[in-house]
Specification:
Strand content: under 5%
Shape: globular
Mean pLDDT: 91
Strand order of the largest sheet: 1-2
Order of helices and strands: HEHHEHHHH
Distance between the termini: 35 Å
Oligomer: single chain
Number of helices: 7
Length: 255
């Protein structure tokens, strides 16, 4: 197991951050965050979707890298693999996804972008500090049940997330911005499998790292995406009378 205990202040801050995330999740269950299909001019100045995505997602990479000793870091260690998995998700999210989405003319409130940047700054810093100072995993951690199960969950979630996102992107022709009912893949069973996949990713990451900051990241992911998935499900049902009645919001056949 990990043989180096984090500083008490670091642990207390993360616990407070987790509590804040739970509170945010409860709030978002009652009010949709105003971006995407729920975007609203009532939240102040607006910024283009592509620019907003690019700025808020690159924030987590920057804040993570600020803490990491790149020259001396052991990249072949379990911690090195964990860092690379994190980079894999966010390089795609920062520099591939924003240039694939077909949202020409669509905007998001600047306040939403700034709140996401704050979220990513805190989470990126907490994880960066963990890997810089506290992530002393034994070499055999690669073969631990937590790492193996977490890696499988992370990889499966990433596949589901990317496949579902690509299907949503392909639903629109080059200059379209409207919405259609998705039909392929896990969309046959869920309204937002892309969100389900991302929740699986970070649940797997919390498991394979067996760390408090990754658990906090997972809780904040759930706080943002569970209410979003429920709102999307309601929105599809309201907008499309022919929407399949057997689809669930987040978990196939269940919920």
């Amino acid at each position: 197991m990990i043989d180096y205990l984090p500083h008490q202040g670091y642990v207390v801050f993360i616990c407070c951050w987790i509590a804040t995330g739970i509170g945010a999740g409860i709030y978002l269950l009652r009010r949709e965050a105003p971006y995407g299909r729920y975007s609203s001019n009532n939240w102040g100045p607006m910024i283009s979707n592509k620019t907003g995505w690019l700025l808020m997602e690159t924030t987590v990479l920057i804040t993570f890298l600020v803490w990491l000793p790149l020259r001396t870091f052991q990249w072949r260690s379990p911690a090195g693999v964990m860092v690379c998995l994190f980079f894999l998700h966010y390089i795609h999210r920062s520099f591939v996804y924003p240039f694939m989405i077909r949202t020409k003319g669509k905007k998001m409130p600047v306040v939403i972008m700034l709140s996401a940047m704050l979220f990513n700054t805190v989470n990126g810093s907490l994880l960066g500090i963990w890997f810089a100072a506290f992530a002393h995993y034994p070499d055999n951690w690669f073969f631990s049940p937590a790492f193996i199960a977490g890696l499988l969950l992370f990889a499966t979630g990433m596949y589901v997330n990317w496949q579902s996102d690509y299907h949503l992107i392909q639903l629109r022709k080059k200059h379209e911005t409207g919405y259609k009912i998705p039909q392929k893949g896990l969309f046959r069973y869920l309204s937002s499998p892309n969100l389900t996949g991302e929740i699986m990713e970070w649940g797997g990451y919390a498991l394979l790292t067996w760390s408090l900051p990754a658990l906090a990241f997972f809780i904040w992911t759930c706080a943002n995406l569970v209410p979003r998935a429920m709102a999307n499900h309601r929105w599809y049902q309201q907008e499309f009378p022919e929407y399949p009645a057997n689809r669930k919001a987040l978990i196939p056949f269940t919920w």
